[in-house]
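User: Sequence in, structure out. Go.
Assistant: Echoing your sequence, followed by the structure tokens.
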Amino acid sequence: MARGSRKVAVVGVALSDCGRVDDATAYALHAQAARRALADAGLARTVVDGFASAGLGTLAPVEVAEYLGVRPTWVDSTSVGGSTWEVMAAHAADAIAAGHANAVLLVYGSTARADVKAGRRTGTLSFGARGPLQFEAPYGHTLIAKYAMAARRHMIEYGTTVEQLARVAVQARANAALNPEAMFRTPVTVDDVLSGPLIADPFTKLHCCLRSDGGAAVLLAAEEYARDCRTAPVWVLGTGEHVSHATLSGWPDFTVSPAAVSGRLAFGRAGVRPADIDFAEIYDAFTYMTLVTLEDLGFCAKGEGGAFVGEDRLLVRGGQLPVNTDGGGLSAQHPGMRGLFLLVEAVRQLRGEAGERQVRRRDGGLPRLGVASGTGGWFCSSGTVVLGRE
């Protein structure tokens, strides 16, 4: 449970227009997602007294809050890459439980794809060469190469194969085929993945996330507000966060992600085990992220991730542990720091609002427990949130 005297629920979730959005600014996508999340909850904007955002503006989240017309008395601008939103959700839940806020809105929006297409920016090959990164930049450590090196280490130590990594992409696409909002829905095979252009050994193109536009918003509120919402509450049961390293030279083990710590904390605080979880939403900028996070969250033993993902366990239809049920960053959408999209999808699954991709328990009922685990940087940070319904 979140610390404090009040229970905390997610009461509203939404996406903005996603995929190919050439006629909107990032601010507009923030606003669209926020309006939709408030409408989903059935609460007025005036109820929001907490606000969290990162990634846009010189003074995030001040500029975004002003654009949205909210004047919060509790704010968070934590920025730790893709795990930002799970970490923010943890902070927001603690603040609400302690009575420092009543309703906290988390919102994100990005025109990453449209900006590249219009020449307003280039692809992000590196995070720069300031601070500790200056010692790696001369050696050509691109962002993708960092993940590829970690994947290769796992392959060397545990015999994980590139075909097993490719199965992650294949299953993500199969799940995306059931999601009308996914950017890419055409099925792919292991051969399709392996025969694509090489990006960073061992990753070919389909081992890597797509680039899209889009935004998302999540509204958390105290239990007394949840009673007035138009949707059933999804409760925040436990959270965990952890930062591991800033440089690859400071990373003790390329085969262990910070989810090993954040997951243990989240499950322990929720009072549940990995075996109790019905589905998982995992940050998947690259196929290896899915595999190693599943290991570190405890769904399989260290070194067994290759075999685990290679047996179609991740599928919505017929999988033992449906993972990235919307298609994930590999197939659905990836506008940058995608962690907020994991929370939106998890809530939709627990509410039973996922349509064709709806996860069902063996008895045919709706899932009771889900986990969202975000990763930031190059496995530098992790935030994990366990969610459940009554």
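User: And one key feature?
Assistant: The two ends are 14 Å apart (CA to CA).
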